[in-house]
Design goal:
By secondary structure, the chain is an alpha/beta fold. The chain has helices at 22-25, 30-45, 47-54, 69-80, 94-104, 121-133, 149-159, 182-191, 259-264, 272-275, 277-286, 290-312, 339-351, 378-392, and strands at 18-19, 88-91, 112-116, 137-141, 164-170, 195-199, 218-222, 234-238, 326-330, 355-356, 358-362, 365-371. The longest helix is centred in the C-terminal third of the chain and has 23 residues, at 290-312. It is globular, with a radius of gyration of 21 Å. The two termini are 40 Å apart. The relative contact order is 0.16. Bound molecules: pyridoxal-5'-phosphate (PLP).
């Protein structure tokens, strides 16, 4: 498969915009949207039958399908991430999945939960809420540049105290785009009795995954970012020993009827994103498979990051093993330093230069987090490089 700009036609993306922000909310390919639409049409032919008799294992009436539709889709998503379908449930998004885990955990007064400074803000706030409700506390690990696997593993290990019960580890950090060595971190933490929740919001579809081998307790991840599944769709994988003790953030008819039953029905909602997941996975195969996609997007992210740093006179020092398909590059000092500078540059790039890219302020400098997707190529990086230079002089 030849990757690059011509693949844009597979998406509805505005052809006038250089889209370098796939990571933020994903972008769904046309054919996956068509598959989702077909599911919605099927639902609308007999809504009650579909939602009350075919979707989950909680049904009205005696007739029951062999495999509820949610379970069929979960089996396929499970195979994509190395897991059994019955160890995995769909949730609307990573935030919802993390909330379920956090609010189910029996924190006691004085317990501690470790988060990191690279953790996603919304999930860290959910952690604050869950712990403060029970009189427990948060401890924040500081991970700083230059990043290295050894330093990241050591930082989590050193943060463990006598009352540490759980740690949240982001698999791919939102702001920096770096891949954290979750298996190594989990091995250290588990040895010390600390349960590990991985926030893999950016991982499925960006990097190959074999979730059960990571040695973690819970793994939550978005499908709507890099796996081409329509919004809103995410999964929560739970190690079998913990499945009985985890509950969804929203409780409904399935309470205490088992892990998958409890999560599969959380009130009436549109299940079409989940049921369209197999079409998204089929599209990944048609593109040559995840390994081929990853090889292209990782190489583009890596080369693109070095190119941007060179054009902007800054340095890109992240080791290659920590780079997936997103890279965060420092802008020239003349681009500004504050959140306000970041917001106005981001707006100017979008509304005047027609480039969508994530720009943020960190440690008194601006940074761009650039996503590499199969529809991007080096010409997109050249455009953003020049646009930033023109606005920074
Ligand atoms: C690491 C991480 N966790 C969680 C989220 C939240 O994802 P969602 O809004 O789909 O729940 C994001 C979104 O960018 C993220 O980067």
């Amino acid at each position: 498969m030849r990757f690059g700009r011509h693949l844009r036609d597979e998406w509805l993306l505005d052809p006038d915009i250089i889209y370098l922000n796939h990571g933020t909310v994903g972008a769904t390919p046309r054919r996956v949207l068509a598959a989702q639409r077909a599911v919605q049409d099927e639902i609308e032919r007999q809504p009650s039958r579909f939602l009350l008799r075919e979707l989950t294992s909680i049904i009205v009436g005696a007739w029951r399908p062999e495999h509820p539709r949610m379970r069929e889709a979960a089996t396929q998503v499970g195979a994509f991430v190395g897991a059994r379908g019955d160890d995995l449930v769909f949730v609307d998004n990573a935030t919802t999945g993390a909330n379920g885990v956090l609010r189910s955990f029996p924190f006691e007064a004085g317990d501690e939960l470790i988060v990191s400074n690279l953790g996603y803000g919304g999930v860290t706030l959910a952690a604050r809420f869950a712990t403060r409700e029970r009189g427990a506390g948060l401890r924040t690990v500081t991970l700083s540049r230059p990043f290295s696997h050894a330093a990241i593993v050591a930082a989590f290990d050193e943060a463990v105290g006598p009352r540490t019960r759980m740690a949240i580890v982001d698999h791919i950090s939102s702001e920096t785009g770096i891949i954290l060595p979750v298996a190594e971190i989990a091995a250290r933490l588990k040895r010390r009795g600390v349960a590990v929740l991985v926030d893999g919001a950016h991982a499925p579809g960006q990097i190959p995954l074999d979730v059960p081998t990571l040695g973690v307790d819970w793994y939550v991840a978005n499908l709507h970012k890099w796996a081409f599944v329509p919004r809103s769709s995410a999964f929560l994988w739970v190690t079998p020993e913990r499945q009985a003790s985890v509950h969804p953030a929203v409780i409904s008819w399935g309470l205490d009827q088992g892990f998958t039953t409890e999560f599969d029905l959380v009130g009436t909602r549109d299940p079409s994103p989940f049921l369209a997941a197999p079409a998204a996975l089929a599209f990944i195969e048609e593109l040559g498979g995840l390994a081929a996609i990853h090889a292209y997007t990782h190489d583009l992210a890596w080369r693109g990051a070095h190119y941007l740093a060179q054009r902007w006179g800054t340095a890109f020092e992240t080791p290659r093993a920590l780079v997936g398909s997103m890279a965060t590059v420092m802008l020239p000092a003349s681009a500004g330093s504050t959140r306000e500078h970041a917001a106005s540059l981001r707006d100017a790039l979008l509304f005047e230069d027609h480039i969508e890219v994530q720009v943020h302020a960190s440690a008194d400098r601006l940074h761009a987090r650039v996503s590499a997707q199969v529809y991007n190529d080096m010409a997109d990086y050249a455009r953003v490089a020049e646009a930033v230079l023109a606005r920074s002089s």
